[in-house]
Each structure stands twice: as C-alpha cells, then as structure tokens.
Amino acid sequence: MNAYLDISPEVKAALDAGKPVVALESTIISHGMPYPQNVETALNVEKIIRENGAVPATIAIINGRLKAGLSVDEIEYLGKKGYEVTKVSRRDLPVIVSKKMDGATTVATTMIVAAMAGIKVFATGGIGGVHRGAETTMDVSADLEELAMTPVMVVCAGAKSILDLGLTLEYLETKGVPVIGYGTDELPAFYTRKSGFGVDYRLDTPEELAAAFDAKLKMGLKGGMLVTNPIPEEYSMDPEVINKAIDEAVEESKKLGIHGKQTTPYLLAKIKDITGGDSLASNIRLVYNNAALAAKTAAALEK
Question: Which H helix or E strand runs over 68?
Fold first, then answer.
C-alpha cells in the first residue's frame, strides 16, 4: 500500500471482495463547470456507476493525501473551491503531496492513483492529446504518456476536437496503446460522433472490451487501453457548428498567448460561450454515457 494513499472504506471493501470499481477524475469537478452544477454532475456520475453494477471511486488529492473514493462532503468541498484547487498532472504530484495541498486530478493522475489502488477501469469525458501546432510548440498532453505506461482502461468520448486528432492517434500508435471504438469504426470527437479518423479495432459489447483488456494484463503488456465511446446521437452537436466554434477559440487563444495547462480550460470555456452553453450540456451527457459503459465493463472484467 502506498504511504500517501487513502482508499475509502466502500472502495476498499469492493476491491477486497473482487467487486467492480470504476475510477473517476476530479478536474471535471473543480475546473470543468461552475458550482453547484459540478457537484450535481459528479454525484450523478457516481449514481450511474452504482446503477450499472459497480462502485465509484472519485479520485483527488486533499491535504496532500491521494484519495481513491471521496465522500459527498469532499466532492462538495472541491466543487465550492473550484479553480482554487490546483489541476494536478504527474509532474505536480511530488510538490502537491509534500506541501499538503489540494489537487484536482487529470486523466494522467487519476490513472496513476487508480493503478496504486488496484482499480483497472476509469471513466472520463475526453482525453488530452497532441495540440494543434504541436510540431512547433511540442504541446503534447501527459495523458498520452500515462496511457503508454499505466495499466488502466480509460473509457472516454474520444479526444477533444480542440486537438490535432490525426497526430494524437499517431502518437498513441507509436506508444503501443490500443484505441478501441465501442460500436464504431471511427474515432469519436468528443462533442460529435465522427472525426474522419479510424480506430484500431471496433468492439461491440462490454464483455469484448473486458476480454481484450484482460488479455493485455495477462500478457504483461505495459500501458493502458483507450476505449472511445461516441456521445449519444441525441446529444451530439452539429460538426460544422462545433468545429467553427473550436477554430474561433483556437485563434483567440493564440492571439492572447495562452499555452500549457491553461490551454484546454480556456478553449472549453470559450467554446461553451460561443455555443450558448450547448457544449457543456453535451459534455455532461457524454460523461454519463461513459460512466455506464465503464461500470458494465468493470463488472465483466471481474467475472
């Protein structure tokens, strides 16, 4: 057991009994949307995971402790503090923990803590990736490196379409990360179901996803697996509308000189403003959809 890790009693009991557990990130709580919508969404995601046969383990850092499984009060605390909570990736962990600070975990850090706790499946919205213009900026998300190293299945709605999706797929291929389309041959682009880019393999049931990941683990292959689950048709945005909003937001971020970890939050907030809030509504629905699939897959994996 890691000396810095606290596993909640409910999550520990589930892990000890071989019951399915699904990890959840906390950046979506502190940095993803305003209070109280952030807390309401986080609690709804946990409820959906329970309804689909698994135990939720929301992951965060509170007072320097790595937490696998948060109480309602802890989720409320993160939601109210919002942007005061540091967004934490792998590089930030030593300082945040040693200084006993609070931290909202990104995809990368959630994978790290989930693996420490023995949790194999993680549901999120979208992953980070290779940013547009990365051939000159070298702006590549740590999420991709974590997928290459850490044995956790990540269920998402694809990579955010603010990224260079082609380069993101090339990077994952180089790192040996399987990109699976759930019921689709095409990479979903977060707000929309289509991107024009293919996935490595299409699998159509939670049992197939679980079998593929189980084989990966048993062969001792390093790294995780990326499952891309398209946003439900009724919540998918018009690709022309969202792509126009993204192009506009990217151009403005360049003019303002925004870079590094500020890029994604800025772009998502700007896109929300341009689309009149439609992008945030889609974001919430795709997270719910991913939580349900992750819970079913975790249940199949334990069988």
Answer: strand 65-68
Of 25, 46, 74, 146, the catalytic one is 25
Tell me the pLDDT of the chain (303 aa) as tens digits: 589 999 999 999 999 999 999 999 999 999 988 899 999 999 999 999 999 999 999 999 999 999 999 999 999 999 999 999 999 999 999 999 999 999 999 999 999 999 999 999 999 999 999 987 777 778 899 999 999 999 999 999 998 777 899 999 999 999 999 999 999 999 999 889 989 999 999 999 999 999 999 999 999 999 999 999 999 999 988 877 777 877 787 778 778 877 766 766 776 677 777 766 667 788 899 999 999 999 999 999 998
> 3-state DSSP helix/strand/coil percent for the chain, to nearest 5?
50, 20, 30
Token readout for 33 is 């949307």
Two structure tokens written together for 146 = 């974590």
Say which of 160, 261, 270, 272 is annotated catalytic: 160
Residues 152/121, Cβ–Cβ less than 8 Å? yes
Range 263-268 contact pairs with CB under 8 angstroms and sequence separation of 24 or more = 263/131, 263/139, 264/128, 264/160, 264/162, 265/31, 265/87, 267/162, 268/32, 268/160, 268/162
Mark whether 25 is an active-site residue.
Answer: yes
CA 120 to chain centre: 14
Is residue 160 annotated as part of the catalytic site, yes or no? yes
